[in-house]
């Protein structure tokens, strides 16, 4: 890459540019093929945006973004004989997608959109210059480009100081931030997401603009906000992104329950700051993910597990503070917020269940749970059990090393109890020892509510005593039926 269209790079930029060149040369064949297609048709093609940024950071993936002066129909004609597959889901915005040999590319015609500053829907307009396209992008680190020709990567284009911002690890906007965020308020939340993903900070004017314009995020649909929140939580440092969101006022607009956990500690009623505790739990939960990779459900549960505390906070006569049933209240709050953000039913159910269950372990004490209680713990957690293990362990944030060690040892004991029971019985499917058909045949009753009551009785018995032999299960059911069931109880 040359710097024909940028100022001479500082010495500190040379390693960044060299790293980008290595990353791009790994895609040399594809870039050369695309460059040749567009060169021969008399069009320009530039790698652009996050692809250039990530190449400079040494984190370039397999999805590449390009921009061109060619109109979408011309791009489709050029790609059709070359691509293994094509899609036009973004064609209304000038984007054509294609894949070849497992590599995905998106090519977008130069844009020169205008906004009405009320909705985020732009008046789509195609542009004629690369410079005009770059200045409409969200941040300067995403407003760099690399010319792609038949020879591969060519000149490096940086008219807005994106490389200097990347070197300083600062997020700044190409135009005035008030204009940029007014055009698309989602960019404010995207700033917090990039803090999480890239470890960048905000330029002072960007932070100020977000603080002043945070209420405008409500112009964005819940689905778009949720998508950004997920990307933020899956970043390398989601705590930093959440802190930006809360500190600038964005959190008050889209996730107010998190900021509400910032509770003052007074001299009479000392307790942990619930907000900072929750961020610590999130960090520790991430550390426990291991080789399984980022776990979005676990991260959401770690962040939200204590959101019920502010609503249940009580000052006790002896000077302490209690949060009775905060897990119950928190699960309801979690369900309501995630539904508002239009998450899937499965996601809402999983996260709220973990919030509801996260405190139950503390009733285990010194291992005094019966086998029945252990079975109920496993059954109530269901497929979330491994996540619940991680969440409960992450929830230990005490600075008292002896107490922390005791809590972890106690949970080790619970896991050992679970493993011992699992060797003797199928804890993943704790069901009655007789099914509905067997119940109806034994009791001589038709399908109906009484079968359900009998089934529930056997389920409770199975929980309490473990697996029963068929003859024993039938005897117990008949005894219950003669005692209570036949009376319609």
Automatic annotation (TrEMBL):
Species annotation: Mycolicibacterium fallax
Gene3D superfamilies: Beta Polymerase, domain 2, cca-adding enzyme, domain 2
Keyword Nucleotidyltransferase annotated: yes
Presence of the UniProt keyword Transferase in the record: yes
Name of this protein: Poly(A) polymerase PcnA
InterPro entries cross-referenced by the UniProt entry: Bact_CCA-adding_enz_type3_sf (IPR050264), HD/PDEase_dom (IPR003607), HD_domain (IPR006674), HDIG_dom (IPR006675), NT_sf (IPR043519), PolA_pol_head_dom (IPR002646), PolyA_RNA-bd (IPR032828), tRNA_adenylyltransferase (IPR014065)
Top-level taxon in the UniProt lineage: Bacteria
GO biological process, one term: tRNA processing
UniProt keywords, alphabetically: Magnesium, Metal-binding, Nucleotide-binding, Nucleotidyltransferase, Transferase, tRNA processing
Obligatory cofactor(s): Mg(2+)
């Amino acid at each position: 890459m040359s710097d024909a269209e940028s100022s001479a790079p500082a010495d500190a930029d040379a390693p960044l540019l060299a790293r980008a060149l290595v990353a791009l040369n790994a895609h040399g064949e594809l870039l050369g093929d695309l460059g040749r297609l567009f060169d021969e048709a008399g069009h320009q093609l530039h790698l652009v945006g996050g692809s250039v940024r990530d190449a400079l950071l040494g984190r370039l993936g397999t999805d590449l973004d390009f921009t061109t002066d060619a109109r979408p129909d011309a791009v489709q004609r050029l790609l059709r004989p070359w691509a293994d597959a094509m899609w036009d889901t973004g064609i209304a915005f000038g984007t054509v997608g294609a894949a070849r040999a497992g590599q995905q590319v998106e090519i977008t015609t130069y844009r020169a959109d205008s906004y009405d500053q009320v909705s985020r829907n732009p008046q789509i307009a195609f542009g004629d210059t690369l410079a005009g396209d770059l200045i409409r992008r969200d941040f300067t680190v995403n407003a760099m480009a690399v010319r792609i020709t038949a020879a591969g990567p060519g000149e490096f284009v940086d008219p807005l100081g994106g490389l200097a911002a990347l070197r300083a690890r600062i997020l700044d906007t190409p135009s005035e931030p008030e204009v940029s965020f007014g055009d698309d308020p989602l960019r404010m939340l995207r700033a917090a997401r990039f803090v999480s993903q890239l470890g960048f900070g905000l330029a002072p004017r960007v932070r100020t603009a977000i603080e002043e314009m945070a209420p405008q995020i409500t112009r964005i649909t819940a689905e778009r906000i949720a998508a950004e929140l997920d990307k933020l939580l899956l970043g390398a440092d989601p705590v930093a992104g959440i802190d930006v969101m809360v500190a600038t006022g964005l959190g008050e607009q889209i996730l107010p329950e998190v900021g509400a956990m910032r509770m003052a500690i007074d001299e009479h009623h000392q307790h942990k700051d619930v907000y900072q505790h929750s961020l610590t739990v999130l960090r520790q939960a991430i550390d426990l993910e291991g080789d399984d990779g980022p776990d979005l459900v676990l991260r959401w549960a770690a962040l939200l597990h204590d959101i019920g505390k502010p609503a249940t906070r009580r000052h006790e006569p002896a000077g302490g503070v209690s949060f009775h049933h905060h897990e119950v209240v928190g699960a309801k709050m979690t369900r309501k917020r995630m539904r508002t953000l239009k998450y899937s039913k499965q996601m809402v159910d999983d996260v709220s269940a973990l919030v509801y269950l996260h405190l139950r372990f503390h009733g285990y004490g010194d291992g005094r749970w019966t086998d029945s209680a252990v079975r109920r713990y496993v059954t109530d957690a269901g497929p979330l059990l491994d996540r619940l293990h991680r969440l409960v362990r992450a929830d230990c944030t005490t600075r008292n090393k002896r107490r922390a060690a005791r809590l972890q040892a106690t949970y080790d004991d619970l896991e050992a109890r679970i493993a011992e029971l699992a060797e003797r019985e199928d804890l993943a499917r704790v069901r009655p020892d007789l099914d509905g058909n067997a119940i109806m045949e034994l009791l001589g009753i038709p399908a109906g509510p009484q079968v359900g009551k009998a089934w529930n009785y056997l389920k409770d018995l199975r929980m309490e005593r473990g697996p029963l032999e068929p003859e024993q299960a039938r005897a117990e059911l008949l005894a219950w039926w003669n005692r209570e069931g036949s009376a319609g109880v």
